[in-house]
Amino acid sequence: MRLGIDFGTSNSAAAVVRDGRVEPIRFGAADQFRTTVYFPGAMQDPGDFQPDPAQEHELQQLMDSAARDARAAGQPRPVESLRREALRVLRRQWMENRIAEPRSSSQLLQNAVYGDAALEAYFEENEGNLVQSPKSMLGYNLHPRARQTITGIATHILEHIRLTASAQLGIPVREALLGRPVQFRSSIGEAGNDQALAILREAAVAAGFDQVEFMEEPAAAAMHYHATSAETHEAIIVDIGGGTTDVAHARVGGSEPPRIHRAWGIARGGTDIDLALSLATYMPLFGRGITRVPTHHYVEAATVQDMTRQRDFRQHRYDHVEDPWGSRLQALQDTGNTARLYREVERAKIALSSATGHASPLPFIEAGLQASASADGLGQAASGYMGQLRELLQQVRQDIGTAPQAVFLTGGMSRAGYLRQAAVDIFPDSHHVHGDASFGVVQGLALAAGGDH
């Protein structure tokens, strides 16, 4: 039996076809779980690093060398920037030495907790490590040790899915069809796609899958839509997720198998709206735009999916920043508080899809502190992503040359009315169908996986 797996940026799900019907895998009381894992003691905290006299000497040498290179290139750099970069090099070496201590990966990642329970365990324990949305890091330029860590985390998530499915189905599950975006989020171009797939394949094999194949997520969504369509027609499939937005042009419906003509994708999604909303509405409470704290500090704090940026944020000192901003930034550096803030941002984004305002209490930062978000503010925060979405859909319309009979929307962000309206604006003459926002892709993956067996 082959399992369809939607390893998502925000949430993950799995399903199979059994007795001719799609059966979702249950994770506790739900059909999906937040793609978040909490585990104690697996990663060293760079915050523990303090240069000794020999390292201070090496630090100065690194700074001097980088300064010479910058001057030679005609681009002199500030001392603060040179020191920050040199510290990163030394911290990385220190971490590698610490991690090289003999401990097995099973010891490092044992007792993992997944989904929303991972957040709660992290907040309750106030120690250990929390990794959110590891999928968003798969295509980035990773140091070998960071790649090993991300692969280990992905392995544990996929193993959690496999073992849960095996228990529910009563048989060992050894084959999987994994969804993949058209374009992974990447800092290294097309090589990021290859790297992300290699990491996922390695992780799936380590998780106990003997056979692993991939299917583009909009093609999987087309399979789901096809199964519900009685008549054959041309359709555009739009899958708007947390980290990526994918589109497919397909012939679906009727008795013939669906035919995917072409796919498009951008590495942008709901998490980009989260980041913009956080910076515009929440970070001013910490002095953004008011103090002289550099903007990138706030980006680091808000980007909870990026372990490197989170660690960099915890390195900064704010004892020189005037209150209340300095004390609030120091409170935000406390264990778990960037994750708590991000959860409030997510809640606000969801609430503002149907309300004009939303208040977020922030007692973990300061007694009585709260952020007030508005629907207009969300619209402004989403404007950057909306421009990219409209550009993508315009490109699709131009490439296919004709208006499709239907536009099918799925993915977690497809619930938002302002995103649905963008599709209506670009394809006004098409019939618009709103699919299962959370499970359209995984149902299609299950159908595709079951079709070959």
From TrEMBL:
InterPro entries: ATPase_NBD (IPR043129), Hsp_70_fam (IPR013126). Keywords: ATP-binding, Nucleotide-binding. Coiled coil: none annotated. One of its GO terms (molecular function) is ATP-dependent protein folding chaperone. The keyword DNA damage does not apply. It comes from the Bacteria. This is Hsp70 family protein. It comes from Stenotrophomonas tumulicola.
